[in-house]
Specification:
Blueprint (H helix, E strand, L loop, with lengths): L5 H21 L7 H17 L1 H18 L1
Helix pairs in contact: 2-3
Protein name: Conjugal transfer protein TraD
Organism: Rhizobium tibeticum
């Protein structure tokens, strides 16, 4: 496997961050404060780690949102 250059790694990182930001916009949370968004993500991370049913429920909700775009 070919090693990624520093420039390629930075581009990949930037693209990933842009995609993640797009999810915030898609969820309708563009204008929420960053502290709220981080709190939501921390809470959700804890819930999906502790509860497989919640992980499944949220995954299905996200899949439906992506399918509605198609």
């Amino acid at each position: 496997m070919q090693k990624m250059t520093a420039t390629e790694a930075r581009k990949k990182d930037a693209r990933e961050k842009i995609e993640l930001g797009g999810l915030i916009v898609k969820a309708g949370l563009r204008f929420e404060k960053r502290t709220l968004l981080l709190g939501l993500l921390i809470d959700a991370g804890a819930r999906i780690t502790a509860d497989e049913a919640e992980r499944t429920r949220l995954s299905e909700l996200g899949a439906k949102a992506f399918a509605d775009d198609a």
